[in-house]
Amino acid sequence: MPDHIRRLRDTLRTRFGGPSESDVVVGAPGSIQLRNVTAGYGSTPVFSRFDLHIDPGEFVYLVGPSGSGKSTLLKVLFGTVRADEGWVNVDGIAVHRLQHWQTDTIRRRVGCVFQTYELLSHLTALENVLLPLQLAHPRTRHARNLATEALELVGLRDKLHALPPTLSGGQQQRVAVARAIAHQPRVLLADEPTGNVDKDASAEIMELFGQLNEHLGSTIVMATHDEYVLSRYPARAVRLQTPILEVVAS
Amino acid sequence: MSVRRRRLRRLVPTWIWAPRYAFHVVLYAMRCWRGRAVAWMATAVAVGAVLSLAAGSELFLVLSERSLNQQVRSASELQVFLADDAPQTQVDQLKAKIARMRGIRSVTFRSKAEALALARQDSTLANIADTTPANPFPASLVVDLDDPSAAGGVADLAATDPATDHDVPASYTPAQGRRLSAFLSMAQAVVVGVAVAALAVASLVALVLLRSEIRARRTELRILTLVGTPRPVIRFPVFMEAVALAIAGSVVAALTLSYVGDHVVPAVNQYLPFLQLGSAADAVQVISLSTLASSVLALGVCSLLVRLPR
Predict the structure, then answer these.
(1) Last residue of a domain, one of B121, B142, B172
(2) Could you give the C-alpha distances from B39 to A119, B34, B187, B235, in angstroms and in order?
(3) For position B154, which CATH number holds?
(4) Per-residue pLDDT of chain A (250 residues; tens, 9 = 90+)
(5) pTM (2 decimals)?
């Protein structure tokens, strides 16, 4: 195929769907690899020359004190913060090579639960879950069924048409979880998903993540400092220390 | 299910997703709008007020320029006074010479009797016409000028031609003609300059309003980028809103202009007759349409240039 045709096809793919060929590197679907990664804000790196390998279907905790870089690491994986140096591969996509206008590629592919929920207050719970399915995945059929199923899974069957401001913190977090898992991603990133909810809601969310990990084989990376979760649901933990990142497997 | 039907079902999603996707994007834009209708209305009224001010000042400038143009046009009627004893052949030759010059629309002969009749209609000359036993008004060639600067050439020709009155050969001096022409050009340039400045200021204010609207939607746009919405899709509601703002603002401006054209301009004509603004109907239509086109273009382009969160 001539080069200019390949470039045009890559551009169209990037704009309307999947990543271009040049962005896909060798790596198993659902795996996460970081090599020699330095990232931070401005001139101050939060971590430098960091390596990490997560196999497909693995459940990994990112633990460490506040400011140790848990959220920044998730942002690097999600393409919100660009690595200054190194190589980041998430679910077969070279995230470090994506330009800022191409980051929607990785965000459509990976599910993410944010610490602050990030729900649109003028849309109902169902519309919030539907939004990425309809706007970010134009070819997704039965989007409404998927969104309803995801909300039922997180126990919000009776809150489909409720607006986020009328829901409790825990319920909002569950809507955010439903949005992240609705398209059944191979990789799920979660930033303190149990940070603002009570023990029962935490248990529900962790059960859900467990099911996703076990039955669908999704890779889950979860930042947390919730000791209850760590002790009740043991898994490999990557411990981050300030200022130099240090990896401790447990 | 038949093979044909299965094939059909497999084919459908490959082409149906585009209109369905567009429908969802439009639906989302509508939902966004529904959530902030009151704030949007306030912004639309503000944009309308700014556009009304700009369009109103433009209307008065256009009417003033038109009035000035008419006055200059009436002043561009030049008379070449003929000597009482000038033979008809010389008069005809002079008339032909003037008609051949550049910037001349027409040349007509006005006899002494016609000049007297006209003088009787003019309040400033009527007294002379009635009290003087002999007709003191000379016959003349009435020259209608396309370009007032051509008056100089006609005046020069009249000064040397044997058929003209040697004491006062023309009603106009070359210097007067040049001054009129320069004044008209300057007035037109001022009108264009002020109109462009008014539109620029209106666009700038509307842009500031649009930016503050987008700043208020920062959280929403950030969430849209976080859930992986393609950037053109994020821009679409912003673009739609900008265009809708421009249209709503232009409608407000058009209504204001229509009111000004129907009530304010006639009142000005009545109380300040020397301004001679005339009818505003055609100018209102043109300015309303140009305000709509320019505001849609300016706000639409600006909305596409606004930086989105990463």
Answers:
(1) B172
(2) 21, 10, 41, 19
(3) 3.30.70.3040
(4) 555 555 555 555 555 555 555 554 556 788 899 998 888 887 778 888 888 999 999 999 999 888 888 888 999 998 888 888 888 999 888 888 887 777 888 888 899 998 888 898 888 899 899 888 877 666 666 788 889 999 998 888 899 999 999 998 888 988 999 999 988 889 999 998 888 778 888 888 888 888 888 888 889 999 998 888 888 888 899 988 765 444 544 4
(5) 0.63
Q: Is residue B109 part of a domain?
A: yes
Shared domain for B186 and B296, answered yes or no, is yes
ipTM: 0.79
Interface of B with A (CB under 8 A): 13, 17-18, 20-21, 24-25, 28, 31-32, 34-36, 220, 222-233, 310
Reading the block at residue A127, the tokens are 């519309």
The reply to whether residue A135 touches residue B229, judged by beta carbons under 8 angstroms, is: yes
Check CB contact under 8 Å for A107 and B228. Answer: yes
Residue B164 lies in a domain: yes
Has residue B265 been placed in a domain? yes
Residues B54 and B90 in one domain: no
Residues B143 and B209 both lie in one domain: no
Q: Which residues of B touch A131 (CB under 8 A)?
A: 28, 224, 227, 229
Tell whether B216 and B268 lie within a shared domain. yes
CA of A151 vs chain B CAs: smallest distance (Å): 17
pLDDT in tens, B195-254: 778 777 877 777 787 777 777 777 888 888 888 888 888 888 788 888 888 899 899 999
Instruction: For residues A193 and A173, give the distance between their C-alpha atoms in angstroms, rounded to a whole number.
Output: 7
A187 touches B: beta carbon within 8 Å: no
Q: Which residue of B has its CA nearest to A106?
A: B228
Range of the domain at B64: 35-71+182-305
Q: Does B281 share its domain with B246?
A: yes
Residues in chain B within 8 Å Cβ distance of A127:
31
